[in-house]
């Protein structure tokens, strides 16, 4: 209602008309506080958060980005959009990158290791960070499906050089559509701020007089989407607690199921490549 009553749906400019309401700025601050990270930059989606992260990390043509085979299409779309090459490697029991497969896939062109914390599962970040440190590689966390999850006391998305989140309708919290890139690196944060808004430097309060240090794109979130996200992020801890409670119910139920033996049912030709049956 604050946004609708002011009539200012854009996150930048129109200072006098917005009656002091800055929902995107408030949401970024809430994310920083909740995640324990120094900088958060809102974007229009989790996909564009990945686009922004790869751009400000300097990833481009000729670079290779190692990523898991089990992921969502946006992960490798963002790499291709940057002009880089996605290198898909196997996953392990974490449901994301197998560190041994990552190390075997490194070439002179490798620039980034990008674990994808699928369905809230977390990568072996200690092992992956060690690999990145030893080979001078960037660690970029695709945490689009894992906001609120922690790894050894640290929130996912805050452990690598940068992390990305999605706030679409089916994520843990939603803006309707939205995303965020987070980092502790002030230079990455400043460049992300510019890049998401056509390269505007956001200096002063006259949008028409702002400088453009470099080219960017329109990856902005709207004030309406940010207002929805602001209400949602304040409920994040409760949402995660409910998910963990439901997970425990399912895990406890699975423990009561007896072990299952499998046998193949031959087809008419006696071939054993038919359906599986269990008893």
Automatic annotation (TrEMBL):
<comment type="similarity">
    <text>Belongs to the DegT/DnrJ/EryC1 family.</text>
</comment>
<dbReference type="InterPro" id="IPR015421">
    <property type="entry name" value="PyrdxlP-dep_Trfase_major"/>
</dbReference>
<protein>
    <submittedName>
        <fullName>L-glutamine--2-deoxy-scyllo-inosose aminotransferase KanB</fullName>
    </submittedName>
</protein>
<keyword id="KW-0032">Aminotransferase</keyword>
<keyword id="KW-0808">Transferase</keyword>
<dbReference type="InterPro" id="IPR000653">
    <property type="entry name" value="DegT/StrS_aminotransferase"/>
</dbReference>
<dbReference type="InterPro" id="IPR015422">
    <property type="entry name" value="PyrdxlP-dep_Trfase_small"/>
</dbReference>
<dbReference type="GO" id="GO:0000271">
    <property type="term" value="P:polysaccharide biosynthetic process"/>
</dbReference>
<dbReference type="GO" id="GO:0030170">
    <property type="term" value="F:pyridoxal phosphate binding"/>
</dbReference>
<dbReference type="GO" id="GO:0008483">
    <property type="term" value="F:transaminase activity"/>
</dbReference>
<dbReference type="Pfam" id="PF01041">
    <property type="entry name" value="DegT_DnrJ_EryC1"/>
</dbReference>
<dbReference type="InterPro" id="IPR015424">
    <property type="entry name" value="PyrdxlP-dep_Trfase"/>
</dbReference>
């Amino acid at each position: 209602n604050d946004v609708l009553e002011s009539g200012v749906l854009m996150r930048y400019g129109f200072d006098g008309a917005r009656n002091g309401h800055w929902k995107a700025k408030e949401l970024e601050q809430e994310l920083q506080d909740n995640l324990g990270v120094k900088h958060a930059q809102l974007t229009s989606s989790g996909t564009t958060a990945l686009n922004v992260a790869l751009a400000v990390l300097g990833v481009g043509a000729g670079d290779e980005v190692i990523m898991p085979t089990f992921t969502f299409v946006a992960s490798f779309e963002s790499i291709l959009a940057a002009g880089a090459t996605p290198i898909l490697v196997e996953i392990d029991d974490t449901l994301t990158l197998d560190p041994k497969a990552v190390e075997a896939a490194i070439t002179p062109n490798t620039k980034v290791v990008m674990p994808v914390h699928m369905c809230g599962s977390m990568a072996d970040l200690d092992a992956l960070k060690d690999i990145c440190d030893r080979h001078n590689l960037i660690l970029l966390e695709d945490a689009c499906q894992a906001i609120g999850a922690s790894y050894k006391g640290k929130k996912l998305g805050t452990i690598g050089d940068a992390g990305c989140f999605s706030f679409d309708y089916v994520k843990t919290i939603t803006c309707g559509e939205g995303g965020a890139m987070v980092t502790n690196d002030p230079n990455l944060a400043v460049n992300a701020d510019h890049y998401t808004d056509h390269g505007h430097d956001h200096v002063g309060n006259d949008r028409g007089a702002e400088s453009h240090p470099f080219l960017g794109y329109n990856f902005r979130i709207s004030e309406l989407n940010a207002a929805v996200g602001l209400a949602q992020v304040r409920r994040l801890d409760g949402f995660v607690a409910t998910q963990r409670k439901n997970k425990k119910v399912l895990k406890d139920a699975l423990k009561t199921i007896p072990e299952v033996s499998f046998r193949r049912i031959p087809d008419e030709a006696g071939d054993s490549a038919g359906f599986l049956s269990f008893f």
